[in-house]
Amino acid sequence: MAGYDFKSESEVKDFINNLGIEYRFGCYSEKKPEVCHLLGDYLESIKKDYDKAGKVYKTNCDDYKYGKSCLKYGTYCLLGKGGIKEDFPVAYNYLETGCKNNEADACFNQGLLLVTDNEKRGINMDILKGMELLKKGCEGKNANACYYLSGMYISGVKTAKGKRTQATAKENGEFLSKPNMKLAHQYALEGCKLGNIFSCANVSQMYAKGDGVEKNEELAAKFKKITLEMQEEMESNKTLKFQEGLQ
Questions:
Q1: Percent of the chain with pLDDT strictly greater than 90
Q2: CA-to-CA distance for 219 and 222, rounded, in angstroms?
Q3: In this structure, are residues 115 and 131 in contact, taking their beta carbons and an 8 Å threshold?
Q4: 97/189 Cα distance (integer angstroms)
Q5: 9, 111, 225, 228: which could join 133 in a potential S-S bond, CB 3.0 to 4.6 Å?
Q6: 3-state secondary structure the chain
Q7: What burial letters (b/e) apply to 94-113, b meaning 16+ CB within 10 Å?
Q8: Cα torsion 117, 93, 108, 238: sign
Q9: What was the pLDDT predicted at 43?
Q10: Do the beta carbons of residue 143 and residue 181 sit within 8 Å?
């Protein structure tokens, strides 16, 4: 990189083209899964060639079980992106492979497919399995997984919501999963630590009300301040993005 003048348009173009050559060599000649994924990202983000990017992600998942590529191809299937027809069952399979190969974002998306109603798209609801996947996603540092899991423990999950696919699950009264404010606080706190603003807001409210944790006005104020600071930062970033013309 030191040899390029990034103020020169021609040198920037040369750098980008050489980057593509390096990624292709590392992927196809040296057969490095991490470089294949970088090639996919290069084709997607720089070349805007979603068809080729999708093929690279798919092959990298099929051949090497590279979690990040499985996640990307699964997402393409969910969105019908890159010339791929929307296909939730295929997407689910790729997300599952990604999750099994320690890609936390894949666990989150796979879990989300199971805890929401996607039967018309070919996915049977399975709340308990979905919650386990969200748990794995949270443990893998996916903030959204922590937030969603916390929300499910706040409200609980009624058996009727999953009755069509939970025939073999042990029913717990009227709830498939009872409300558990202690776990709700635990996952909300983890989500906040990972940067989820809604988790931080919930943690503040829990400390203020003493829900799932001992009431503590000082900590309630602390997490409220964190939430407001995160909100200000988000607003600032939106303004900066607009002013720089990066939309």
A1: 80
A2: 5
A3: yes
A4: 28
A5: 111
A6: CCCCCCCCHHHHHHHHHHHHHHHHHHHHHCCCHHHHHHHHHHHHHHCCCHHHHHHHHHHHHHHHCCHHHHHHHHHHHHHCCCCCCCCHHHHHHHHHHHHHCCCHHHHHHHHHHHHCCEHHHCECCCHHHHHHHHHHHHHCCCHHHHHHHHHHHHHCEEHHHHCCCCCCCCCECCEEECCCHHHHHHHHHHHHHCCCHHHHHHHHHHHHHCCCCCCCHHHHHHHHHHHHHHHHHHHHHHHHHHHCCCC
A7: bbbbbbebebbbbbbbbbbb
A8: negative
A9: 97
A10: no
Residues 134, 145: Cα–Cα separation, whole Å: 5
End-to-end CA distance of the chain: 27
**Cβ 60 vs Cβ 29: under 8 Å:** no
Q: How far apart are CA 219 and CA 197, in angstroms?
A: 16
Amino acid letter, 208: A
Q: What is the pTM of this model?
A: 0.85
